[in-house]
Amino acid sequence: MADAGAREWLDAHPAAGPRVIAYDVHRCCGGGRICQVSVRELSRKDRLDRFASGHLEDGTLFLIDPRAAARLPARFALTVRGFGPLKHLDLKLEAEEWGTLLYE
User: Fold this and answer.
1) What b/e sequence results for 14-39 when a residue is b if at least 16 CB atoms lie within 10 Å of its CB, and e otherwise?
2) What are the tens digits of pLDDT across the range 37-82?
3) Most Cβ neighbours (<10 Å): which of 11, 45, 49, 65?
4) What pTM value is reported for the model?
């Protein structure tokens, strides 16, 4: 589901292909993990066979990193965060859902 802000953002920023809900894990020097989730456009280096898929109510296709797909709730929303040129699509999750996605 996309809230009104996300729907406006999507309409104002059409993409040539599906968008990706990407999941990145980085190790820091102390051995800890830093997990990041972003919603971005499909890149040339993305392998389509690696992604799960999700759809908005209007049929808009999103590809989801399988590591994120395994941790996301069955239904989640998109929203817009940031200001000015830093506005971007983001997941709209409850605190507990963010915890499951990023820290378990």
Assistant:
1) eeeebbbbbbeeeeeeeeeeeeebeb
2) 899 999 888 888 899 999 998 888 999 999 899 999 999 999 999 9
3) 65
4) 0.84
Q: Where are the domains of the chain?
A: 4-103
**Distance between CA atoms of residues 96 and 31, nearest Å:** 24
Q: Which residue has the tokens 């983001």?
A: 90
Give the C-alpha separation, 29 to 1, whole Å: 37
Helices (H), 17-104: 66-69, 95-103
User: Environment class of residue 11 by beta-carbon count within 10 Å: exposed (0-12), middle (13-18) or buried (19+)?
Assistant: exposed
What tens digit of pLDDT does each residue of 75-103 get? 999 999 999 889 999 999 999 999 888 88
Q: Which CATH architecture has domain 4-103?
A: Sandwich (2.60)
